[in-house]
Every structure is written in C-alpha cells, then in structure tokens.
Amino acid sequence: MVFFHQYFLIFALCTLYVESANPIAQFCNEFSYTITPELSQNIDSVKAKLIQNTPQTGFNITEFGDEGKEVNGIAQCRGDVPSQECTACLQTAAKEAKKMCPNQVEALLWYEYCFLRYGTRNVIGDDSLDYRVVQYNVEYVTNPKLFKEILTELTSKIKNVSLEPDSKGFGKGEAKLSNSETLYAMSQCTRDTSMRYCEQCLTIAIETTGSLCENKKGCRIIQSTCYLRYELYPFLYGTERKLSLENSSMTKYLTVVRKP
C-alpha cells in the first residue's frame, strides 16, 4: 500500500520511438496562475527565444515580460544530441506544451532529446518541485545478482561523470553483462542545478532503480532536475534502434508518476 501513497499508475504500454510528439514526461502546474492573453504572449516569446538560443550550447535560460507578468524559461538538450535534433525537439516541445497545458503558466516537459520548463515564478535553479516519472520494462533480467552489481557500479560511475565541471551535467557508459549482453546507461542534470542538488537528484534516481526498477531489463527515472536511464540495448544518439511491438518486448513499459 505504501507504493500507492506516493505513486499512481498511468498506462501499461508505451513504444519507444524518439520521433514521437508525445513527451516521456510532462507536468502542468494546476496551482499556477490562470493564463491571460498577456501571459500567453510572454510564454510564446520565452519559448521562441529558447528555441533560437539553446541549440548553440545545448542549454539556455531566459525571461520575458514586465514585472508581475514575467515568464522564466529553461531549455536543455541531451548531451549527445546534435544542434539540429535539439532544435527539432524544442520546436515539438514548445508546440505540445501549449496543447497539454493550455490554461497553466507553469509547465515542464521531458523528451528523449530535450527538456523544456517555464513559469511565472522563478523556475531557474528550482529543485522544489517534487515530481517524478518512472518507466520500467516489465521483463526481468536472468541473473539478478550479477545485474545488480554491474548496474550499481555503472550508475555510480556515470553519476560521477555528470558531476564533473566539464561534463555539462551529462554522463554515459556501458558495461558487459556477458559475451552477448551489454548494459547501457546515461545520466543528466539540468545545467541550472547546483552540483549539490545534481548529486542529490541522481542519488535518488539511482536508489529508485533498486526499488521500482529492481531487476528490470530497462528503466527511466525522470525528475524535475535530472534524468537517469539504463537499457539492454544502445539508445544514445546515432546508436538507438527502432523497436516494434511485434518483434521486441523491450517496448513493454509500465509508467508511474509521483506528483507534488
């Protein structure tokens, strides 16, 4: 029963196509101000500036509007994604945010390649939003003991890479489980987050792999300031494989959400 005090089940099956217009996680703050025409214009201006400025460095923060009507925004693309894919992802995110959160002035969307967040309160460097999405493969690994040891070592390694000053919050790695099987993992913090909160966020994500994702073949943990993922297939840019429901059980994921 404790599980359902904190989380609820969203859906039982999702396909992992990176081209999808649907985000892997989204949050519309129902307690934020009701949108007005002026705020809507300011949100559109912030999103346009983020789309324009983020791809050059993979990260951008901006604001727009007069005092009392000001909107803050953050955008970031995954560390392995080229600028053209970054632009395309943010364009999709900006468009879908308006559909998904039409009456809210605070929204957060995670896509496979990018992250978009905006609001009338200062969302830059904000880690107070207790929001989490966990997606895990329904199938179990065949050697749980070995898998746990290697996963623990690998996620600790990529967390440390994410904390390095030159990493821009992005870590990746892989480890052999056997001659025929490899474990792939990545971690990323939003670059407005301090090193301290990045470490805390990824530590919580890693702990979640040992609870909700224990012995699962794949898992994603998406939080408001960080993202952790592991799979038994390559998924970084240029290496991912498109998987169909017909030929791969790796498309079978359960999703649970923790909302504030």
UniProtKB/TrEMBL annotation:
Keyword annotations: Repeat, Secreted, Signal
Q: Name one Pfam family in it.
A: Stress-antifung
State the compartments where it is located.
Secreted
Checking PANTHER family in the record gives:
CYSTEINE-RICH REPEAT SECRETORY PROTEIN 38-RELATED, CYSTEINE-RICH REPEAT SECRETORY PROTEIN 55
What start and end residues bound the annotated signal peptide? 1-20
Source species, please? Helianthus annuus (Common sunflower)
InterPro entries attached to this UniProt entry: CRR_secretory_protein, GNK2, GNK2_sf
The molecule here is called Gnk2-like domain-containing protein
Which parts of the chain span the membrane according to its record? none
User: Would you tell me the Gene Ontology cellular component terms?
Assistant: extracellular region
| Residue ranges of every copy of the Gnk2-homologous domain listed in the record | 21-123, 129-235
Per the similarity annotation, which family is this?
Belongs to the cysteine-rich repeat secretory protein family.
Q: Which domain of life is it from?
A: Eukaryota
